[in-house]
């Protein structure tokens, strides 16, 4: 099954402009074209776009994505380099996750403090209302 650029954009969650940009900078090999010259994306193309989206979501710089894509295009003899790129990126992702976990801990602590403040304020308000009655 093949998909038009609009369908590929919809299925991938990327804009048509992003698909064209990815093609222009070499992240995506030019897809097949129909007799009218329109792009036809395959399931394999969509799988690759999904992978690229994961790399971007995890913060991989475009420059590294391009290196990975170029290595992939050169073939199986680049397997070690592709693995190395992903291992290095995984290290960055794990560091970012640890940083976010630390930030989440601070947020949770502050929220717990505010919840306690709300309870204490409610108790004071109730005591004040009882004393006024």
TrEMBL record:
It comes from Solihabitans fulvus. Residues 2-71 form the HTH merR-type domain. Pfam families: MerR_1. The keyword S-adenosyl-L-methionine does not apply. This is MerR family transcriptional regulator. InterPro entries: DNA-bd_dom_put_sf (IPR009061), MerR-type_HTH_dom (IPR000551), MerR_fam (IPR047057). Keywords: DNA-binding. PANTHER family: HTH-TYPE TRANSCRIPTIONAL REGULATOR ADHR, REDOX-CYCLING DRUG-SENSING TRANSCRIPTIONAL ACTIVATOR SOXR. The keyword DNA-binding applies. Gene3D superfamilies: 1.10.1660.10. The lineage of its organism: Bacteria, Bacillati, Actinomycetota, Actinomycetes, Pseudonocardiales.
